[in-house]
Design a protein that fits this description.
With 103 residues, the protein is mainly β. 14% of the residues lie in helices and 36% in strands.
């Protein structure tokens, strides 16, 4: 049950993801807007108990999520030459964090 709730929550958050688009487009016009990408990268860690207090842990099933500052922007394919990788990994603020292969 908790994993279903976790996935549902993360899906709601993921659907709201955007990236910041700046700079000149292929048409030469300046861009300064937010673009919906509806995806994000995160890692989930399942824990079955609390941290030990005086050497004793209590049962407590919970999930931690680490959300990376990254989203896949498929629209950037329209801004690339034929030698570009289709799409581009961007930070949620619109900065290209690292060169990466598409998912």
């Amino acid at each position: 049950m908790i994993t279903e709730s976790f996935r549902e929550t993360m899906t709601l958050i993921e659907n709201a993801m955007e990236t910041r688009v700046r700079g000149k487009g292929r048409d030469g016009l300046e861009r300064d807007c937010d673009r919906s990408t509806s995806n994000m990268m995160y890692a989930a860690f399942v824990h079955r108990e609390t941290r030990p207090v005086e050497g004793i842990s209590d049962p407590h099933f919970h999930i931690h999520a680490f959300v990376f500052n990254a989203t896949w922007d498929q629209e950037e394919t329209k801004q690339c030459s034929r030698f570009c990788t289709p799409g581009i990994w961007l930070s949620l603020s619109g900065v290209r964090p690292v060169a990466a292969k598409p998912p």
